Amino acid sequence: MEIILTIPWNVSLKNVDVWFQDEARFGQQNTTTRLWAEKGTRPRAVKQQQFEYAYLFGAVCPATGDTEALISPCMNMDVMEKHLALISKRIPEGRHGVIVVDGAAWHQVHLADKFDNLSIIKLPPYSPELNPIEQVWQWLRQNELANRCFSGYEDIVDACSLAWNSFISDVSRVMELCDRDWIKVGT
């Protein structure tokens, strides 16, 4: 019901796209994962001690496979607004995007007021399992960014860009990983 109340009255539910948005921190304190190794050996994975990070703001629309991302050195409302502007440009003319976000301090509903084709809905507290983009972060860490060392911020940004582009290169992967039965609005 909350989704319907956030959509302008002149937009049909058939013209609504549900997007999931979140951000994740990637950096020198990186994920280590299991490795394939010859039986009887113990492979080593380097664990960095430095603390440089980049923040990847990502959004997916499971119905269409559309995505949008922004990499930033920090997380705040200004960066969130820039990310919403990118999503707004991505939504086709005549359609409306409902952006589902968690309760982070920079996820303010009033930020969508600047965009005619966006609305924001916040998830209930302590419910990350309701945001499918959490699986995207897991996929990026497991398949692209784990067991690596980064020389600095620019190296982290380059790796995050390559990882995101690898993920979105297969639209069916985006749709399958992020689709949920309960997000179908206009059917």
UniProtKB/TrEMBL annotation:
<dbReference type="InterPro" id="IPR047655">
    <property type="entry name" value="Transpos_IS630-like"/>
</dbReference>
<dbReference type="InterPro" id="IPR038717">
    <property type="entry name" value="Tc1-like_DDE_dom"/>
</dbReference>
<feature type="domain" description="Tc1-like transposase DDE">
    <location>
        <begin position="17"/>
        <end position="155"/>
    </location>
</feature>
<dbReference type="InterPro" id="IPR036397">
    <property type="entry name" value="RNaseH_sf"/>
</dbReference>
<dbReference type="Pfam" id="PF13358">
    <property type="entry name" value="DDE_3"/>
</dbReference>
<protein>
    <submittedName>
        <fullName>IS630 family transposase</fullName>
    </submittedName>
</protein>
